[in-house]
Amino acid sequence: MSPKTAVVTGATSGLGLLTAHRLVQSGMNVVLVGRDAARLATVTAELRGFASYTADLSQRSQVRDLAAALAADGIRADVLVNNAGAAFPATRKPRTAWNAPTPSTTTRRSC
């Protein structure tokens, strides 16, 4: 039986890097995705030649391009570790807005 394939996003540091190392240790083929090409090359060398792709997943066009590249290269993911993160401060609600009462939490029903 051939090894399973995992695609790990955000694989160049932190939890993504640790996860990639652990998956390799468990015998999986690991495809690395990161937005920093230099760090990605270093990690790919550490893991001895597993496939890697540079993509900034906060950009929808790069998400589509990554999916197309994986498909074109015949990579089928058995596991996706979606570890890449992005913050969009302009669209985030202030912390107090999340805790503000809403009609559903303040309306009392009488029976």
Characterization of the model:
- The structure is a single chain.
- This protein is 40% helix and 15% strand.
- It is of the alpha/beta class.
- The protein has a 4-stranded parallel β-sheet, with helices on one face.
- 21% of the residues are buried.
- The model has no long low-confidence stretch (mean pLDDT 84).
Could you list some keywords that capture this structure?
single chain; 111 residues; alpha/beta; Rossmann fold; 5 helices; 40% helix
Summarize the structure.
This protein is an alpha/beta fold.
Helix-strand layout with pairing:
Blueprint: E1 5-9, H1 14-25, E2 29-34, H2 37-46, E3 52-54, H3 60-72, E4 79-81, H4 95-99, H5 103-106
Parallel strand pairs: 1-2, 1-4, 2-3
The overall number of domains is 1
Uncertain segments: none
- Helix count, DSSP H or I runs of 4 or more residues: 5
- Spatial order of strands in the largest sheet: 3-2-1-4
Strand content: 15-25%
Largest sheet: 4 strands, parallel
Question: In angstroms, what is the radius of gyration?
Answer: 20 Å
